[in-house]
Specification:
CATH architecture: 2-Layer Sandwich
Number of domains: 1
Helix content: 10-25%
Largest sheet: 6 strands, mixed
Distance between the termini: 18 Å
CATH superfamily: 6-pyruvoyl tetrahydropterin synthase/QueD
Shape: elongated
CATH topology: Tetrahydropterin Synthase, Chain A
CATH class: Alpha Beta
Strand order of the largest sheet: 7-3-1-2-8-9
Strand content: 35-45%
Length: about 170
């Protein structure tokens, strides 16, 4: 039989920046809430998986994201002595900005921090990308009878992303 479980009430905090967005180009943080729907084939007793195991898998992945600066690999320019240097500039065009002067008027952000404070991901750290990264890592930890996971990750109280990943 195919069954589906849902789990709610997980939270994690993180910081990020989105250089292409006027408001979100500055370093800022979120407290996010996560809910999961796990789907798969039940065993001979009709059990998909124990809730305690599902919670343990989710929490172990959230620990990797919690209280981290989540950054796309392309912004990491140096890794030395357990530290990283992150450099980026905004990529959006300001209203009325002359394209010839655009590179001169954009601030350059430089952040140096211990590597342990960072979570490096391959893509921009949008809520969609973060949700996908979370889903992939959680699905990898779930038993083989689980065929898919759907996550709802809320970035604050009124917005977020859904992702649905299958094996």
């Amino acid at each position: 039989m195919i069954a589906e479980l849902f789990l709610e009430g997980f939270t994690f905090d993180y910081a990020h920046f989105l250089p292409f967005d006027p408001k979100c180009s500055r370093l800022h943080g979120h407290t996010s809430n996560l809910s999961a729907r796990i789907k798969g084939k039940t065993d001979t007793q009709g059990l998909l998986m124990h809730f305690s195991l599902a919670k343990k898998c989710i929490k172990s992945v959230l620990e990797q994201f919690d209280h981290k600066l989540i950054v796309a690999s392309k912004y990491i320019v140096e890794k030395t002595n357990n530290e990283v240097l992150i450099v980026y500039t905004t990529t959006f065009k300001k209203i009325g900005e002359n394209p010839k002067n655009a590179s001169k008027s954009k601030p350059i952000y430089k952040i140096r921090l211990p590597y342990e404070s960072l979570l490096e991901i391959p893509t921009e750290s949008t809520i969609e990308s973060i949700s996908k990264q979370l889903g992939e890592k959680i699905l990898d930890r779930l038993p083989e009878n689980i065929s898919s996971i759907e996550l709802k990750v809320c970035e604050g109280s009124s917005k977020g992303a859904y992702v649905n990943l299958t094996r």
